[in-house]
Specification:
Structural class: mainly alpha
Distance between the termini: 23 Å
Number of strands: 0
Largest sheet: none
Shape: globular
Helix content: over 70%
Number of domains: 1
């Protein structure tokens, strides 16, 4: 992996991690604001799902492998890191995957134009 692709992957990771952090903070603050209601509002549900879907997908994969107990222990030990850190890491990984796919697609296009 050359320097340019690693910089691009890191840039996508940081941008998407910021999106995940912003979504988790919005979901957290929205849930705090609506904590007096009997049931959660749709705004809280949508923000929570938007923030945590990469973490939920990874959690389902961890359940399949059998490592899920360590994730729940992590949540009990560091709840704020779990609330804000996991969405940031999950969204960052989504950004890194997008960067790697766009790099492969561009590389394939360059090979075709060289022929």
């Amino acid at each position: 992996m050359n320097k340019r692709t690693s910089e691009r992957t890191a840039m996508f990771f940081v941008i998407f991690a910021g999106v995940g952090l912003a979504l988790s903070a919005a979901a957290f603050l929205s849930s705090l604001a609506g904590s007096g209601y009997a049931s959660p509002s749709w705004r809280n549900v949508v923000l929570g799902i938007a923030a945590f879907w990469p973490s939920i997908a990874c959690g389902l994969a961890l359940v399949g492998v059998g490592i899920f107990n360590s994730l729940t222990d992590f949540a009990a030990a560091a709840p704020m890191l779990y609330t804000f850190g996991l969405p940031a890491i999950g969204w960052g990984l989504v950004g890194a995957v997008i960067a790697s796919f766009s790099r492969k697609r561009r590389t394939g296009d360059q090979e075709q134009t060289a022929d």
